[in-house]
Amino acid sequence: MAVGTLVSRALGFIRSWLLILALGLGSTVADTFVNANNLPNLIFLLVAGGVFNSVLVPQIIKASKARDGGADYISRLLTLGVLVMLVLTAAVTLAAPWVMQLTTSGYSPPQLAIATVFAFWCLPQIFFYGLYALLTQVLNAHGAFGPAMWAPIVNNVVAIAGLGMFVWIFGANRTNPHSLDNWTGGHTFMIAGMSTLGVVIQTALLMLPVLRLRLGLSPRFGWRGVGLGAAARLGAWTLATTAVGQLTFLYVMKVASQPGAERERLQEAGNPLWQQVPGNTVLEIASQLYLLPHSIIALSLATVLFNRMTEASQAGDRAGVREALSHGLRTMAVATVFAALALFALAAPLGMFFSGGRASDGVMLAQTLSILALSTPFMSANFMMARVFYAKEDARTPFKIQLWLAILNVVGAFVIQYLPARYIIFAIAGLYTVGNVLSVVLSSHYLRRQLGHLDGAHVARSYIRMGYAATGSAIVGAVAVGLLGGYNPSGFIWSSNFAALAAIVIIAVPMLIAYFVLLRVFHVTEVRDLLRPILGRVGGRLGLGDAAPSPARSTHDAGAAAGSRGEPSEPPITAAITTISNDTGIIPRISGQFDPVMYRARPTSPTPERLPGRRSFQGPPGENPNFPED
């Protein structure tokens, strides 16, 4: 699973790089496509994502424990899910012109026309996102975790092939600029059509492993008495949290579409200032870069520790919950604190590498990334804290946090829209950063009420030591960037994409060495907890036995004190499976790409309550013995 996720992330960056090569980072066409391609994921999460999370997914997991594997029950849920997604997709696709008008701002008629065409091609992805989520949960519930991790790789390969053909047939944007005036149906198919085809194939690939389960799934109707009403009532707060978050994000993205429209007007008027106006594509690529450490390290670690938090919470063990939270915050900080300062130091070469070959675009991307990067630890810390609320089955508190963040973002975006166009994207990046910090403040406040304290002194000491080590590493990186011309417009780094890539590789090595040396100097022992699973696997494959022996599980009190300065370490992290949860905080969506990592099944108790005791129940509400409240 971990390898599949890493490969998918790597291919995702290749896909983004090719998109920028094909369309340009600061081009109107790129901004228009990003807006349209973001919509399917956003609309799915807004309208159906919360329903799948809080209603259908838990039911699938429970039903899979039945003697027959939940065949009849799951068939009914899948039938309902497919019908809902078909109706939703058809309605939204037919309404594409109005959807684009509602979600963009300042578009000229030609730009809005192309945006609508992109939307017609991209919006059918909604159905396949929903089907993918359902099939993933069926597989997860039956212990088949790999297919959902590897299927997105094929999606990226298809999209990469389309972008490669686009560059081969129509040329790269730098040598053959693509604009609204010379855009054709062939261009649209290679970009939007292949993007949707990748999502279709990604979903189709999950059909084979589902069929191998031999569950006897088939379309079945009749949903009275199966418990969906009770589950929906229990998930009402989750649904509300999802709705608030997605509506807020749609509004922020509407404001983010303004600069692209203004840049198009400046370019048509011959005003050279158009080259200094970043659009939402810049924000999207910067978001991908700063989300990388979170998606690989923090999300995986939180997924694993959620099991421990759930067990401790169900046992009424506040110290156990606190230990798991403290361990998670400190362990992931080894990666996220370094990533924040490393991205800040390497912003120039990273910006140039993803610029499509134009230095002015690279500068805008580097500036946006610098603003976002420093909030990486806060975003991941809030994600970990949110696991505690879900482990305690507290969906109301995340809604409160999301509501405060929504107020911040709506008010902030409303003010930002009146700024000069060249500053809007930078201001939105700043809004993300402020939101990530605020989310940690709010989560800490509510968690202290529930847990008494959060082992704050210990966590703070660890973060400070890691901060010292990461700062030293960043200084090494900043000096190296300067030596390679990163602060000189005519320097080596700004000469080409591949010069920037070479600089990244050259600089990253001494930065990593400096970081690990300084971690040892400052006695940061959490690094062993982060690396132990990797070292253990490598050692096992090399025949070295347990390359990183794990200590026995400490008591809660000892575990809470574990970490820096040689204290006992926590037990090693092992593979686990967890469920969709709607998270607070501001996490920008990535280029409309469906993220399977967010659709893992939440652990359930060994004997789930209210498990359907027979294949199906058809009867009046309230008479189902398995779901008496329905």
TrEMBL record:
Keyword terms, alphabetized: Cell membrane, Cell shape, Membrane, Peptidoglycan synthesis, Transmembrane, Transmembrane helix
Region called Disordered, residue ranges: 546-573, 587-630
Compartments (UniProt record): Cell membrane
A GO molecular-function annotation: lipid-linked peptidoglycan transporter activity
InterPro entries: Lipid_II_flippase_MurJ/MviN, MurJ
CDD domains: MATE_MurJ_like (cd13123)
GO biological process, one term: lipid translocation
Protein name: Murein biosynthesis integral membrane protein MurJ
Organism: Sinomonas puerhi
